[in-house]
Amino acid sequence: MPRHLTLSITALIAGAALASCGVVGGLADGHLDIEQAELQARVAPRFPTQHCKFVVACVDLSHPVVLLPEGDNRIALTLDARVSLATRERSGRVGFSARPRYAPAEGQLFLDDIQITTLEFNGLSDDYATLLKQRAPALLQGQLKAHPVYVLDTRTAQGSLAKLAVQDVKVVNGKLRISFVPAAGK
């Protein structure tokens, strides 16, 4: 049997099992909503971080705040930032957005396609601001892209089935919603 057909059948069985089991946490409704506070708790321990280039140019990022803006399928993140260029130092805020990506083999959600949305620094020259806008997303890639922001609990049968039945991930009503493949007959 072709692999994609096997995965499709498995996902449909998993979806049917989820719908008929009355899984806690909203799984029986066909989705799981993750609150902003839970994502915040998972992202915060990765900061503060410092990124230096040739020891004379450093960016320190700290105090992340996770936001789930309605109508946008991206997770927003604002951070306190301190930029040190030789002997000059500027403090401000940096805002990013990222697209959630689901990795089915691991049952994990990652943040990809990181884009800078705001850059608020007093006294930062246009040249340095442009450089920071170009380099800042790459600084976060290592902190967010390689480490999941959420992991489905696969220690239970329901969690193991849910891992196989994820259909999509998007922001709905200020929460990150993981939607599952609908059960047959729904």
Question: If you had to describe this structure to a student in words, what would you say it looks like?
Answer:
The protein is α+β, with helices and mostly antiparallel strands and 186 residues long. It is built from four helices and nine strands, in the order H-E-H-E-E-E-E-E-H-E-H-E-E. Strands 2-3-4-5-6-7 form a six-stranded antiparallel β-sheet. A hairpin with a 3-residue loop joins strand 2 and strand 3. Helix 1 crosses helix 4. The radius of gyration is 20 Å and the shape is elongated.
Low-confidence stretches: 1-25
Which percent range describes the beta-strand content?
35-45%
Shape field: elongated
Strand order of the biggest β-sheet: 2-3-4-5-6-7
Describe the largest sheet.
6 strands, antiparallel
What does the secondary structure layout of this molecule look like, with pairings?
Blueprint: H1 3-21, E1 31-34, H2 36-43, E2 49-53, E3 57-67, E4 75-85, E5 88-103, E6 108-121, H3 126-145, E7 150-151, H4 157-164, E8 166-172, E9 175-180
Helix pairs in contact: 1-4
Give the tags.
alpha+beta, elongated, three-stranded antiparallel beta sheet, six-stranded antiparallel beta sheet, disordered N terminus, 4 helices, 30% helix, 186 residues
In short:
This protein is α+β, with helices and mostly antiparallel strands. The protein has helices spanning 3-21, 36-43, 126-145, 157-164, and strands at residues 31-34, 49-53, 57-67, 75-85, 88-103, 108-121, 150-151, 166-172, 175-180. It contains four helices and nine strands.
